[in-house]
Specification:
The protein is mainly beta. Helices cover 15% and strands 46% of the residues. It is built from 3 helices and 17 strands. A 7-stranded mixed beta sheet has the order 13-16-17-11-12-15-14, with helices on one face. A 4-stranded antiparallel beta sheet has the order 1-2-8-5.
Length: 290
């Protein structure tokens, strides 16, 4: 079986080759686009001195998907370059938790159907104009059985007013916020690392039972995406065992998103913890090694 690194190289080589071949067809209008991109605002106006929520919406045809900030074994994350009025500053994309796409040994992370990628924009205290224009140059990779590069230049004009109301697209922002990973009080997470494995210990709040869980790493090539993540119970806590990418670089922290299934629904938790070395686990791995 190919290593995670080899799988990534093979798939990306195919992606780039396909992308290069697709450019002339797109220029001639022959290649259809399977993702519709749009630029939205949560409110109907810009208020001087008050943060503004913008978002890039990607609507995907059935069977097609785009990618998360760490795409996994294959793919490329969606990128946004901003052209903003003077004094305005855009933050980073806030990524809703992804889902998995499995194709043989290749596992990737991303989105299907519809996703809004929210971005907070800092607004200056004084704005001389009566309206402002925002431009987002968006690029993405859209995949089904094959992959195509996509891009769009999106523009949005909003009036400047001392007060603003929720716009008609506000429910999309509310749904995106619901899917953002959070630092939930009461959840305790720690991590151990050995030569070939990583271990994520999760203790939920009192009265909450974790039925299932999956960890999406932000750091590329830390985890072997093709290997299953095994969950076992330790009293009120659970432990998630992850296989390291054999070609990955050492890491001091485990950063990512833990999606936990509980009786009350799905919890997406922000994880950023120190990765503690575990000599005992390394010794056990050596004993099991044939």
């Amino acid at each position: 079986m190919l290593s995670a690194a080899a799988r990534t190289e093979v798939v990306l080589a195919g992606v780039f080759a396909l992308g290069i071949g697709a450019v002339p067809a797109r220029a001639q209008g022959a290649a259809p686009r399977h993702v519709k991109a749009s630029l939205l605002a949560e409110t109907d106006a810009v208020q001087p001195g008050r943060s503004l929520q913008l978002g890039v919406r990607l609507e995907m045809e059935k069977g097609w998907h785009t990618y998360w900030q760490n795409p996994g074994d294959s793919g490329l994350p969606t990128r946004v370059k901003w052209e903003l009025p003077p004094g305005f500053t855009a933050g980073e994309i806030r990524w809703p938790y992804p889902i998995r796409f499995v194709s043989g040994p290749v596992v990737s992370y991303g989105y299907e159907h519809d996703v809004l990628l929210p971005v907070a924009v800092v607004v200056p205290l004084a704005i001389a104009a009566s309206e402002v224009r925002f431009v987002a140059r968006v690029s993405w990779l859209e995949c089904e059985e094959a992959c195509l590069p996509g891009k769009a230049e999106l523009a949005l004009v909003l009036p400047v007013r001392p007060s603003a109301r929720e716009g008609e697209r506000a429910p999309l922002f509310a749904e995106a916020r619901r899917r953002l990973p959070k630092r939930e009080p009461g959840w305790r997470v720690s991590a151990e690392g050995a030569a070939r494995t990583l271990s994520l210990a999760v203790r939920p709040p009192l009265g909450t039972a974790v039925r299932d869980a999956y960890f999406y790493p932000v750091t590329p090539r830390l985890v072997d995406y093709s290997q299953p993540q095994s969950l076992r119970r330790e009293g009120a806590a659970v432990r998630l065992e992850l296989a390291r990418d054999p070609n990955g670089a050492p890491a001091e922290r485990l950063v990512g998103v833990l999606v936990a299934e509980t009786a009350s629904g799905r919890e997406a938790l922000e994880v950023d913890v120190k990765l503690v070395s575990s000599p005992a686990r390394t010794s056990m791995e050596k004993e099991r090694k044939p």
